[in-house]
Automatic annotation (TrEMBL), chains A, B:
The UniProt record lists the keyword rRNA-binding: no
Keyword Cell cycle: no
Superkingdom per UniProt: Bacteria
Limits of the HTH gntR-type domain: 3-70
GO molecular function, one term: DNA binding
Record-linked InterPro entries: GntR_C, TF_FadR/GntR_C, Tscrpt_reg_HTH_GntR, WH-like_DNA-bd_sf, WH_DNA-bd_sf
Keyword set, alphabetical order: DNA-binding, Transcription, Transcription regulation
Source species: Billgrantia pellis
Protein name: GntR family transcriptional regulator
Length: 234, 234
DNA sequence: TACCAAAGGATTGGATGCAATCTTGAGATA
DNA sequence: TATCTCAAGATTGCATCCAATCCTTTGGTA
């Protein structure tokens, strides 16, 4: 396993920012951070530059890097962009037709979701399974579309602390059931090569998720780093 | 005007890559490049990291940076992604309603286009005006949507050598007339708050541009750096 | 001939020192 | 008191040096 300390530092820092261990708005001092991470300033500076380019940090020449504080609107807007991009992916897959591999993968992901929801109520033990399934489901469709830009751009929209697929989790059983039903319908639509329905099913699916997250922010169940409470995910 | 040599080097290198002065696939040697640019390897390496993050360079640990060679499909896919994103922007503006400023700006951009096309034939002297107008027109609509992600993601899709709005130019008068007619219809649709038509007018507008560029690549009028001829824009 | 191994040079990655810029705070002035 | 000035400390940016990794080439072996 050959890697460089720059990429390790980049990964670690990204994780710290995404999880909120480093707070939005915080200034990152190179000397201090480098020492804390056990490297010199050189690889750290490269990592900072990378994360700034990813949009997680803000950079001002001669003044250094600060953690970007996403506003509520940034998060909503991210979902809107993701919705049309993933809609494009679904439409593309429907038009091209799915490979057998993809169909099989999606079918087994659907089953995992069905199983997690089978109890008729929300069991916290099943949440991790469901969330992982959800991430993989969306990822699998994007991969199958084989549009490198959609892949890249969607990954980019996921780089928002507390708003990525990996962090967000439904907190209401009935919403999860409906959401997973969307997954079933989506696979059906794609299988039938129904481009239009595949497109709008996935767009609606993600737009609704955006509305839900917006509501959570409103209620204070999620904070973006700027609201007064300064709490993380409830 | 305070800036750092890192950002200057980044800008210069980006320009060199976008314009094809540095060829796709080419390996970038740090020592040599730094000397050529008159800086040390430190700011150069930061610039290289930035450009790699932007997608213009490919990086392999311990092996350095090479200029990314976009394949034909990458370019087509870029237009597909841009189409849905700009469609979202147009739809958003139509839904929100345009500010007076925006309406005025767009109207005067339309006039510039009308003027450039008024001769009834294609005058090379007017091409620059038209191209600039076209870039500003699209940019203005995106700005007016005020969705930071769309802005950012579209900028990203434009970072393809020879395929950005700034480089591409129609070479057929009748196509330009039709394309500019799209602009007129788009402003009309947005003014009437017709979300659906604004959306699909801009999508079609860009998808067609993508088809056109694809055809140009096919004909060898544009090369992506991988085709045998290794020519630039004709 | 084809393949493998090791040594030497070449290239990239990281640490350190110094210069340039910014920030802070004490003192002066209105 | 509020504001401005400027100097000292702090922080970032850049150049250089050394270490780690890669690449090439030469020689050997099956």
């Amino acid at each position: 396993m050959s890697t460089t300390s720059t990429v390790e530092v980049t990964t670690v820092l990204r994780e710290h920012i995404m999880s909120g261990q480093i707070h939005p708005g915080e200034k990152l001092q190179q000397q201090r951070l480098a020492q804390a991470l056990g490297v010199s300033r050189t690889p750290l500076r490269t990592a900072l530059a990378n994360l700034a380019q990813e949009g997680l940090l803000q950079y001002e020449p001669n003044r250094g890097y600060t953690v970007r504080a996403f506003k509520r609107k940034d998060i909503i807007d991210g979902f809107a962009a993701r919705a049309v991009l993933e809609g494009l992916a679904a439409a593309t897959v429907a038009r091209q037709g799915m490979s057998d591999d993809a169909l099989q993968d999606l079918a087994s992901l659907l089953t995992i979701g069905d199983t997690a929801l089978a109890k008729g109520r929300l069991d916290p033990d099943d949440l991790d399974d469901y969330r992982t399934m959800n991430v993989n489901f969306h990822q699998r469709i994007i991969e199958e579309a084989r549009n490198s830009w959609v892949e890249e751009l969607v990954r980019h929209t996921q780089l928002i602390p507390f708003a990525s697929n990996r962090m967000i989790v439904w907190q209401d059983y009935s919403i999860m059931v409906r959401s997973h039903d969307d997954h079933h319908r989506l696979v059906d639509a794609i299988s039938r090569r129904d481009v239009a329905r595949a497109d709008y099913l996935l767009r609606e699916h993600i737009n609704f998720a955006g509305d839900y997250v917006a509501k959570c922010i409103e209620d204070g169940r999620i904070t973006t780093g700027f609201s007064k409470h300064r709490r993380n995910i409830a």
